[in-house]
Prior knowledge:
The protein is mainly alpha-helical.
Amino acid sequence: xxxxxxxxxxxxxxxxxxxxxxxxxxxxxxxxxxxxxxxxxxxxxxxxxxxxxxxxxxxxxxxxxxxxxxxxxxxxxxxxxxxxxxxxxxxxxxxxxxxxxxxxxxxxxxxxxxxxxxxxxxxxxxxxxxxxxxxxxxxxxxxxxxxxxxxxx
Length: 153
């Protein structure tokens, strides 16, 4: 009987070891699945952030383009005011700008326009004497039309 008893203890120990191994294996499989789900969720978070950054950059680019068009339109209106024969300093005062700020606005917009080398000066460039002619009036109208066309695009 002693051998049966020893055999029964060995069988019980073996079964216990099998249960423990099965529990360990089951827990290991669960941990592997959870780790896989973790990495999938982490990648999804990175993808969402990347897409959001891309959309934000597109929005910023569009806003910059729209703001530049609005600035070109504003500069065109200022040019049209100057083209009426009003001195540049008076136009600047009416717009709440210093003459230097008005010149900077006009020059910045001139330089930002495609195809402009920066060497050309508009009729609003440095005329502050109030002299006006048909040519400067036509240039102001052209600037208005160009600003309106760019705003529509």
